[in-house]
Write a structure and sequence with these properties.
The complex is a heterodimer of chains A (457) and B (166).
Chain A (H helix, E strand, L loop, with lengths): L1 H19 L3 H23 L17 H28 L3 H18 L5 H19 L6 H32 L16 H17 L8 H8 L2 H25 L5 H24 L4 H22 L2 H25 L13 H4 L1 H15 L5 H16 L3 H27 L11 H19 L2 H4 L5
Chain B lengths: L2 H22 L3 H21 L3 H26 L11 H23 L18 H10 L2 H22 L3
The chains are: A mainly alpha (457), B mainly alpha (166).
C-alpha cells in the first residue's frame, strides 16, 4: 500500500513542480528523489512497516513476491531516470507532466502486483495503459509518434474491451470478482468459464505483445520517442507479465491443464516469430522492439509452467532484461544513426561505452556470467519441471541461439568495423550509472540468489 | 405474459435491432443515432431491475455527453460514405470469419450458461437504488473507488499534455 499511495502523491507533486518551477531540470531532481523515497517505502513495507493501515477487503494482498517485483521495478525506474532523465526533458515542454505520468504508471504497477480481484486488475491495467498512450504520442510534431499513439490507443482500448468481456463472463459464471473465490476448476468447467478465460488470455496477450497479438508492437515502439520506448519495452512490459502470471495462477491455476496447450502454442509462436523477424531488421530500435517480443516469449514460459521456479525466473527475468535494455536504449538515444552501420567503429571512439553495451547485449543473449543467462535458465528449467511439453524447451533453446545472431551484430559492428566518430557526448555521471548497471547485471549473473533469497522472506 | 415480460422482450428486441443497425448503417451519423436508441433500451432494462440511478446515469453520461462528443467528432471529420476507405476483400473475409467464430463460441457459452441466477435481482432488488449503491461503493468498494481517481487524474493530465500548445 505504501507504494500505491506514495507514488500517486508523487505524481501530483510532479504536476505542481511543473507549475512552480521554470527550470527544466528541477522536475528531474524531484522525480529522482521521489523514486528513492518510493524504494525506501517499498523496503519498509517489506520489513513490515506500513504507513497506512487500510482495510482493502481482501482486494489487494501484498506478498513478498509482489514486493520484490516492485522493488526491481522501482530500481529499474531509478536507473531509467538517471540515464534517460535528460533526454526525457527534451521531448517536449512538459517534462514534469511526463514524470507525473510515469509515477501514475508506477501506482498501476504496484496495484497489478498485488491484486486479488478482477476489479483491481482492470483498474491497475488501465492506470498503466492510459498514461502510456500519452507518452507514446508526446512528440506531437512527429507524424510517426502520432501514429504510434493512435495505434497503441486503438489496440489498447480494444484489448481492454476484450478483457472486460472476459471478466463479465467469469462474473456471470461464478458470481464473484475475487480471483480466489471463483474456484474455477473445482466444479465442472463450462463453456462460459472457458470463454472468459480465453478472452482474458487474448487481452493480456495483447498487452505483453505475445504472438499473434503482437502486430502493434514494432510500429508503436519504433514510432514513439526513444526515451519512452525504453520505458514501455522494459518496466511496463514486466508489469503486464506480473498481472498475467498472478491472474492465471490465482484464478485459473486449478484448471491449468485446460489452457496449458494454448499457452504453449502462444509461447512457441512468440519465441519463433519474435526471434526470426528480429534477424531481418536494419534499425537497432526496431530490432529491440522485436527482441522485446522474443524476450516476452521466454517470460511466457513462466506462465506456461506456473510453478515456483517460473515465478523466481520471472523476478530474475524482469531485472536481467529491463536493466540491460534500459542501458542500451540510453546509449541509442544519443546516436544519430539508428541502423547497425551507425555503430561501426564505436569501440574505437567510445571504448568504455562499447564495452558496457557488449555486457548488456551478452545479458540479453543469455551468455553466462550475465543476468540473462540465469533468467533464461530458470525459465527453461521451469518449463522442464512442468514436464508436460518438452518440445517447448527445445524451441526455447533454439530461439536463444538465434537471438545471439542479432545481438552480436551490434558487437561486431562496434568492434570489427571501421567507422566515423558517432560524436556522442556523455557526462561522467552517465558513465558511472551505466557502469553500475553493468555491474548489477554481472552480479545477477554470478550470484542470482541474493535477489531470490528475498522471496523467501 | 404479463406486462413486465412484454416490456422486457420489447426492450431486448429493440436493443439488439438498434445495435445491428449501428453496425449496418452506411452513414456514421445514423449509426450514432441508433446507438442512442441502444442506450435508451438498456436504460429501460436497468429500470426494470429497479436500478433507477444506473438508468439515469447511463442516459446522462452515454446518451447525453458521450454521444454529443461522437457527433461532434463525426461532423468535424466530415465523414460520409463516399470518403470511406475501401477495405481489402480478404481483410473483410478474415474479419467475418473471426467475428463469426467469436459469435459461435459466445452463443455456445450462453446456451448452456450456468449464470448464477440467485445473483440476478428482479424488480424487487434494492441494490440499484442510490442509497444502497452509495453504501456499497463507500464500504465494500471504497479502495477501487478511490484508486480510480488516480486513473482519472492521469487521463486528465494526459489530455492536458496532448492538448497544450508547445
Amino acid at each position: 500500500m505504501n507504494v500505491i499511495i506514495l507514488s500517486a502523491i508523487l505524481g501530483v507533486i510532479m504536476m505542481y513542480t511543473g507549475v512552480m518551477s521554470k527550470n527544466k531540470s528541477t522536475a528531474r531532481y524531484v522525480a529522482t528523489a521521489g523514486i528513492l523515497a518510493l524504494i525506501g517505502a517499498n523496503w519498509l513495507e517489506f520489513a513490515g512497516v506500513n504507513f497506512f493501515n487500510i482495510d482493502t477487503r481482501g482486494m489487494l494482498e501484498f506478498t513478498s513476491f509482489g514486493l520484490v517485483f516492485n522493488l526491481i521495478i522501482l530500481v529499474c525506474t531509478l536507473v531509467y531516470f538517471l540515464l534517460s532523465g535528460k533526454d526525457l526533458e527534451e521531448v517536449g515542454a512538459n517534462a514534469a507532466d511526463y514524470f507525473a505520468l510515469i509515477f501514475f504508471i508506477l501506482t498501476g504497477i504496484a496495484i497489478v502486483s498485488a491484486f486479488k480481484t478482477m476489479l483491481m486488475l482492470f483498474i491497475g491495467i488501465e492506470i498503466i495503459s492510459i498514461p502510456l498512450y500519452i507518452l507514446a504520442g508526446s512528440d506531437k510534431k512527429n507524424l510517426r509518434s502520432n501514429e504510434a499513439a493512435l495505434k497503441y490507443f486503438l489496440m489498447g482500448s480494444f484489448s481492454t474491451g476484450l478483457m472486460l468481456m472476459g471478466i463479465a463472463l467469469l462474473y456471470g459464471a461464478t458470481g464473484t470478482f475475487y480471483t480466489d473465490g471463483m474456484y474455477l476448476g473445482l466444479g465442472n468447467i463450462t463453456v462460459m468459464k472457458m470463454a472468459g478465460l480465453v478472452l482474458l488470455m487474448i487481452s493480456l496477450g495483447f498487452k505483453v505483445s505475445a504472438v499473434p497479438f503482437h502486430f502493434w508492437t514494432p510500429d508503436v515502439y519504433d514510432g514513439s520517442p526513444t526515451v519512452f520506448t525504453s520505458f514501455m519495452a522494459t518496466i511496463v512490459k514486466a508489469a503486464f507479465f506480473i498481472a498475467f502470471l498472478l491472474l492465471f495462477e490465482n484464478a485459473f491455476g486449478r484448471m491449468h491443464s485446460e489452457w496449458q496447450f494454448a499457452m504453449a502454442l502462444i509461447t512457441a509462436a512468440t519465441l519463433i516469430i519474435g526471434n526470426i523477424t528480429a534477424v531481418f531488421q536494419q534499425s537497432v530500435k526496431r530490432m529491440l522492439a522485436y527482441s522485446s517480443i522474443a524476450q516476452a516469449g521466454f517470460m511466457l514460459l513462466a506462465i506456461f509452467a506456473l510453478n515456483n521456479i517460473g515465478k523466481q525466473g520471472l523476478i530474475l527475468y524482469t531485472a536481467a532484461y529491463s536493466l540491460p535494455t534500459i542501458g542500451i536504449f540510453a546509449v541509442l538515444m544519443r546516436m544519430k544513426d539508428y541502423t547497425y552501420e551507425g555503430f561501426n567503429g564505436f569501440a574505437k571512439h567510445q571504448p568504455l561505452l562499447a564495452a558496457l553495451l557488449a555486457v548488456f547485449l551478452f545479458s540479453l543473449a543469455g551468455i553466462p556470467l550475465t543476468g540473462g543467462f540465469f533468467a533464461k535458465y530458470y525459465m527453461l528449467v521451469a518449463a522442464m519441471k512442468n514436464g508436460a511439453m518438452f518440445w517447448l524447451v527445445i524451441i526455447g533453446v533454439c530461439c536463444a541461439a538465434i537471438s545471439v545472431y542479432y545481438y552480436f551484430r551490434i558487437i561486431q559492428a562496434m568492434y570489427f568495423r571501421e567507422g566515423a566518430d558517432p560524436g556522442i557526448q556523455v557526462s561522467e555521471g552517465f558513465k558511472t550509472v551505466l557502469v553500475l548497471t553493468a555491474v548489477l547485471v554481472i552480479i545477477l549473473g554470478v550470484h542470482p540468489d541474493w535477489l531470490l533469497h528475498l522471496l523467501d522472506n | 405474459m404479463n406486462i413486465t415480460e412484454i416490456l422486457f422482450w420489447f426492450l431486448t428486441a429493440l436493443a439488439i435491432l438498434s445495435a445491428l443497425m449501428v453496425v449496418f448503417s452506411r452513414n456514421p451519423v445514423h449509426s450514432v443515432l441508433w446507438l442512442i436508441l441502444v442506450f435508451f433500451a438498456i436504460s429501460g432494462h436497468y429500470i426494470m431491475l429497479n436500478a433507477q440511478f444506473l438508468a439515469i446515469v447511463n442516459l446522462i453520461v452515454y446518451a447525453g455527453a458521450i454521444m454529443v462528443l461522437f457527433l461532434f467528432v463525426i461532423m468535424l471529420m466530415n465523414m460520409n460514405s463516399d470518403s470511406e476507405p475501401q477495405k481489402n476483400k480478404w481483410l473483410k473475409m478474415a474479419g467475418t470469419v473471426a467475428g463469426g467464430s467469436l459469435l459461435l463460441i459466445l452463443v455456445a457459452a450462453l446456451k448452456n450458461s450456468e449464470v448464477q441466477y440467485q445473483k440476478v435481482e428482479g424488480a424487487q432488488g434494492t441494490i440499484g437504488l442510490i442509497h444502497n449503491l452509495g453504501k456499497t461503493l463507500f464500504t465494500d468498494y471504497v479502495v477501487p473507488f478511490e484508486i480510480s481517481s488516480v486513473l482519472f487524474l492521469s487521463a486528465m493530465v494526459g489530455a492536458v499534455v496532448i492538448g497544450k500548445k508547445d
